[in-house]
Write a structure and sequence with these properties.
Helix content: 25-40%
Number of helices: 20
Largest sheet: 7 strands, mixed
Strand order of the largest sheet: 3-5-1-12-9-10-11
Distance between the termini: 78 Å
Radius of gyration: 28 Å
Strand content: 15-25%
Shape: globular
Number of strands: 28
């Protein structure tokens, strides 16, 4: 126990507590888990994008050495349908989604059969013995063609490839705005499919306890609590008999925000054979079977006056659902629906999203989840409007953004932004970037007709994160709430356990939550441990996604710690023979006002509570506390990103020369962790702009199915980043935090593409489709010149 002064933790760049295990190889990944009698699963996947299953014979696999069991989809029929928790419209077309195909496969990689063997390699080898007869059906790949009359159907019993149409029309009618506008600009932008690349592939281990009917499922998941509920529904196992543990999880980026068929299959097989089983995907298997991100066509029209003042925005989306609606597939573009107006004031907003089934891997959440797509569209078309009206892109934005004195501000899309200062962030970014100097250099190089052009890209953004207000989620037809839970347990020796419902997978929650609790309780940072990721140890939670953990989960920790202090105050007052009102509390010490020598540390109070020898009458012998947070509003980080590129017009090669970003994420708990999140986000956003794309052939086969074909950039492919921050605290939570996990990804993609187009605009180029590979840039230049 200690009563020494405790330095404030929030705001300190603490080294992460998690890192010692990570860098010494003492982590507990799901694939590391081994239990007595463990068997291994391997899954046979369809080589065809669309086909009817005529016959599956698993019996030849049973003859292979080491094989214990093998099952077809029909053998495991009755598992139920994988859940979709976000049916965004009342009339949504929502087909059943069997965890393993029974009658028809609908994308290359759809599970068809499973082998159980004594080791992983025997299971994989036995897959080749399974006999499957397919009757090929026509693939459905083009979003517009899929909606045409007479198109082949992904789900023939539904009679359509249209899943839903979701409109949002606010403010003045767009047609009337168009009539009085002096300038309108229309563009089409295409977001390629992206394949998540978490460092740790997906893995599942299921251990059954036959005598009691209990099951423990380990999964590299972002959502252990949601997974438990959904698997209970799918498999029929009572929820209280199912324990889900997310051990150390090596990244997710949304790809592990899912209830996957492999988890249901592993649970069903363990239940069937009464033995523990493990499944771990290979990287190439994951490219086929882990859900993809993005995949969208955006038709965007902006209306303005000649001086650049915005009047209205019209957005029509066609978004690729893939073959099935997974956990939140339909809702991903809807999250973005509210962000197309971004930081700008306008009179009219007209948005329509159409979800389309295709015979490709299902899509779902990927870092930013709808918000990067929205930011890309508005920031790209703002540059196009700036060129049309002859304004500098920064000046056009300045004329239209919400002023800092106007907050709180309700946007045309209906969101209320609580705080922000776009002027400050942009001004700081421009100074760091030396914007005017680069513009002068650009003009000089353009005048000289240099083959290597200099381009400058601007991206200002805000995002809605801290996905939480349950009433808002209800109105959006999301099946779950958005609250988050935390419990503070004061141990008799004065140490502290923080139990959180969030489930980290690289974000540093253990460190940040320790800092928050240490500050409120006044105990040393080292005295705090964080418990997470186990539905038995941390029974309440809504898990981790949508930059919600700190804003909602961290706030819950803060409130729970305050409750502990309030309980401890009662006992301290009793022990010190003073009234509660006469006690001060600072640095973990209760002291009597005017008599500082009369004092008790909160850790001493914890021990006194444990003994229960002298408590106030009627008080329970505990100062532990829990708190559930359900905020009234989202949080809205913002910032300005600036990118300078050099584009070789003869080869199409693009090189990022400099990159500056100034983000405002509210109050910062740990600057080092924030910096890491921004760097990672920038890498993923730049990757979409320049490198990554899931490509299918005309038959629906994924042709970028390995890291040799799907280009994930390395550190050598990325520039140095200049990162800075401004700080306008959020008013929606007691910490003043806003969320940072997705900010870099949201802002960086349009900054890079805007820079490329800016370099080539004097040649007549108005767009380059992502990823902006050397070939695509070269072709854009040739087409403009011709």
């Amino acid at each position: 126990m200690t009563d020494q002064a405790v330095e404030s933790e929030v705001g300190r760049a603490r080294l992460r507590k998690e890192d010692a295990r990570l860098i010494t190889g003492q982590t507990n990944w799901t694939d590391n888990i081994s239990v007595n009698g463990l068997l291994h699963l391997a899954i046979l996947r369809s080589p065809m994008a669309h086909a009817r299953i005529e016959r599956v014979d698993v019996s030849p696999a049973l003859e292979r050495q080491g094989v214990v069991a093998a099952f077809s989809g029909r053998d495991l029929d009755g598992l139920g349908s994988l859940p979709c928790a976000w049916p965004v419209t009342e009339d949504i077309v929502l087909p059943d989604h069997p965890p393993i195909a029974v009658d028809e496969v609908r994308y290359a990689g759809d599970p068809v059969a499973v082998v159980v063997a004594r080791d992983r390699y025997a299971a994989a080898d036995a897959l080749e013995a399974i006999e499957v007869d397919y009757e090929p059906l026509a693939p459905v790949l083009d979003l517009e063609a899929a909606l045409a009359e007479g198109s082949p159907l992904v789900h023939s019993d539904k009679g359509t490839n249209r899943s839903y149409v979701w409109p949002l029309k606010t403010g003045e009618d767009f047609e009337s705005v168009r009539q009085r506008a002096e300038v309108t600009v229309k563009r089409r932008y295409v977001h390629q499919r992206l394949i998540p690349n978490a460092m740790e592939p997906r893995a599942v281990v299921v251990t059954p306890l036959a005598a009691s009917g209990e099951y423990t499922l380990y999964s590299s998941t972002q959502i252990p609590h949601i997974l438990r509920i959904m698997l209970a529904v799918v498999t029929g196992i009572p929820e209280h008999k199912l324990r889900v543990i997310a051990p150390d999880v090596g990244g997710g980026f949304g790809s592990k925000l899912q209830v996957y068929g492999e988890e249901a299959i592993a649970l069903a097989v363990a239940r069937r054979i009464g033995r523990p089983v493990k499944w771990t995907e290979s990287r190439s298997e994951g490219y086929l079977a882990t859900h993809h991100g993005r995949g969208m066509i955006q038709d965007v029209e902006i209306a303005a006056m000649r001086d650049g003042r915005l009047l209205g925005l019209k957005v029509d989306l066609l978004t690729d659902m893939g073959a099935y609606l997974m956990l939140v597939t339909p809702g991903i573009p809807i999250l973005g629906a509210f962000m197309y107006p971004a930081i700008y004031k306008m009179d009219s907003y007209d948005f329509t999203c159409t979800g389309v089934f295709t015979t490709r891997t299902p899509t779902d959440a990927y870092r930013g989840a709808g918000r990067p797509e929205a930011t890309y569209a508005i920031e790209r078309i703002m540059d196009e409007l700036a060129a049309e009206v002859g304004l500098d892109p920064v000046e056009l934005r300045r004329r239209n953004w919400i002023g800092h004195e106007e907050f709180p501000y309700t946007t045309v899309a209906g969101l209320t932004y609580d705080s922000g200062n776009y002027e400050a962030a942009t001004g700081k970014a421009l100074a760091l970037f030396e914007y005017d100097k680069l513009r002068a250099e650009q003009a000089d190089r353009t005048a000289r007709g240099d083959a290597v052009r200099l381009g400058i890209g601007v991206s200002t953004y805000t995002e809605m994160c801290g996905l939480a207000p349950s009433r808002v989620l209800r109105d959006l037809r999301y099946a779950a709430g958005g609250w988050e839970a935390a419990t503070i347990r004061m141990l008799p020796t004065g140490k502290v356990e923080v139990v959180t419902g969030t489930s980290p997978h690289g974000q540093g929650h253990v460190t940040s939550w320790s800092q928050i609790a240490a500050d409120v309780l006044g105990v040393p940072f080292e005295d705090v441990e964080v418990v997470h990721g186990d539905t038995r140890a941390a029974p309440q939670g809504m898990d981790t996604y949508g930059s919600r953990s700190l804003v909602v989960g961290g706030a819950a920790v803060h409130h729970a710690a305050q409750k502990v202090v309030a309980k401890a105050r009662k006992i301290a007052a009793h022990l010190l023979e003073a009234s509660e009102q006469d006690l001060d509390f600072a640095d973990g010490v209760f002291s009597v006002k005017g008599s500082p020598e009369a004092r008790k540390t909160i850790q001493e109070v914890a021990f006194e509570t444990f003994t229960s020898h002298d408590l106030p009458d009627g008080m329970e012998p505990t100062i532990n506390a829990e708190h559930l947070v359900d905020p009234d509003n989202f949080s809205y980080p913002h910032g300005t990103h600036l990118c300078a590129v050099e584009v070789d017009t003869e080869t199409g090669q693009t090189k990022i020369r400099s990159y500056v970003c100034v983000d405002d994420v509210g109050r910062v708990v740990n600057p080092m962790i924030v910096e890491g999140q921004v760097h990672g986000g920038l890498a993923q956003g730049i990757a979409q702009a320049l490198f990554e794309e899931a490509v299918y052939d005309d038959e629906g086969n994924l042709v970028t199915g390995t890291m040799a074909d799907y280009l994930v950039p390395s550190a050598a492919d990325l520039p140095e980043f200049v990162t800075e921050r401004t700080e306008t605290p959020a008013t929606s939570n007691p910490l003043g935090v806003k969320g940072v996990g997705e900010a870099g990804t949201i802002a960086s993609t349009p900054a890079v593409v805007n820079a490329i187009v800016d370099a080539l605009r004097p040649l007549g180029v108005h767009d380059v489709r992502m990823p902006c590979t050397p070939e695509r840039v070269w072709r854009a230049v040739r087409e403009a010149r011709s």
